[in-house]
Structures are given as C-alpha cells and as structure tokens.
Design goal:
Elements (H helix, E strand, L loop, with lengths): L6 E6 L5 H12 L2 E4 H11 L2 H11 L6 H13 L5 E4 L5 H13 L6 E6 L2 H9 L1 E3 L6 E3 L26 H24 L3 E5 L4 H23 L1
Parallel strand pairs: 1-3, 1-4, 2-3, 4-7
Antiparallel strand pairs: 5-6
Helix pairs in contact: 1-8, 2-3, 4-5, 6-7
C-alpha cells in the first residue's frame, strides 16, 4: 500500500501536538490533512448559522455536537482523493461508528489510529502558554517556541493573543470532557486492532520518528496482505 492510500486517525488531548505531527506525517506520506478544528474556525469566521453554533460551543470549552461534526466531515470526505489523516476527529464513539458507516459505503476502512499520550499537567502548561496571531494564524508558545519580540508575531508583526480556549479554567474543563468521551473511543479502536500510542511529551522530532515507524509497519503489512 502506498502512502497516498493510507487512511489514518490521529488522536490526542488538547495541547498534545496533533497539529504539528499531522503536518509532519501528511508531508511525509502525501496525505490530505483534515483538521476539524480548522473546519470549525472557518465556519465561525464565515459567521454562518452553523458557524455561530460552533463558536458558542468552542468559547464554552465544549465539544461540538456529533451531528454537526459528522455533517461537516462527510462533506469533506466527498472532496478528498487518495489517502488522508484526520486530526481531531472522531472524538466520540458515535462519531467513530458513523465514520465507519460512511467509509463502508465506499468500500473503505481506517488503516491506523495513532494516539499522542500526555499527562494532564503537561497539557495545562503547554496550552496556557500558547499565543496566537489573529492576522496570519501563526501559533507560538511562551516556553517552547516564544516569539522573537514579546507579544509580536514573527511572521507578520501582528499582536499575539491568548485564545479563550487556552485559558487554564477552560483547558481543565476541555480535558475533563475529552477524557470522558474518548475512553470509549480508545477501547473501540483497541478492539478493532487499529490503535497505537506514542508518548507525546517527547521532543517533536522523536514523536514524529516513532509515529512514522508505526505508519511504515502498517503500510508494509497492508501491502503484503494485498500482494
């Protein structure tokens, strides 16, 4: 199986580094990167009826309802060719089951589910230190990737802000919601024999190397099964 045919789900709690690792894997294997967070923010920026609903849930640190997420993701799947990596979806067991149904209708299936493990206190430290640029979307971290000039974006010079969902109280709430909903999801994919986990507290380059080794093994196994 070539990299372009792989269908991967990348899981991880808020702040685990899913975006960074998703981009690295997609670049390495030629996959389409689908981030539900990006889809949500695009809807919110468009000020559509759906966007206003999404924005309200995000501000309160709550997950967007399954039916809304599934509607958006199904539409996105229709536009994709080749392999892809989902970053931030599915987040609940019903979402995973619905995704399986959608894929079966096209005679497809998930090849691999990767999870970035991270301790809660490490998550809080990472996320409360994040600063984003409203102008260009660049993201910095006061500890691991500080801007060259305090409070200013290196890329466009814009004023950096702390997003509402990166405030500590909201982060803690998001973690609680994530854990409650994700435990059944993890159990589901473990049962399917698709689940693999990597320690997300390691340097990003090491996490990427370990994820890539897993993907290579799965890709080789799938190719052997077809051969």
């Amino acid at each position: 199986m070539s990299g372009t045919e792989l269908r991967i789900i990348l899981l991880g709690c808020p702040g685990a580094g899913k975006g960074t690792q998703a981009k690295a894997l997609c670049g390495r294997y030629g996959l389409s990167h689908v981030s539900t967070g990006d889809l949500f923010r695009a809807e919110a920026a468009a000020k559509s009826a759906l966007g206003r609903k999404v924005e309200d849930f995000m501000k309160r640190g709550m997950l967007v309802p399954d039916e809304v997420v599934i509607e958006m993701v199904a539409a996105k799947l229709d536009s994709l060719a080749g392999g892809w990596l989902f970053d931030g979806f599915p987040r609940t067991l019903p979402q995973a089951q619905e995704l399986d149904k959608v894929l079966r209708d096209s005679d497809k299936r998930i090849d691999l589910v990767l999870n970035l493990g991270l301790r809660p206190e490490e998550v809080i430290s990472r996320m409360t230190g994040r600063r984003s640029c409203p102008g260009c979307g660049e993201v910095f971290n006061l500890k691991s990737r500080p801007p060259k000039a305090e409070g200013r974006c290196d890329k466009c010079g814009g004023t950096l802000v702390q997003r509402e969902d990166d405030v500590e109280a909201t982060v803690r709430k998001r973690l609680m919601v994530y854990e409650d909903l994700t435990q059944p999801l993890v159990a589901y994919y473990r049962t399917e024999g698709l689940f693999e986990e990597v320690d997300g507290s390691q340097p990003a380059s090491e996490v990427t190397a370990q994820l890539a080794a897993i993907v290579d093994r799965v890709a080789a196994s799938r190719s052997g099964a077809k051969g």
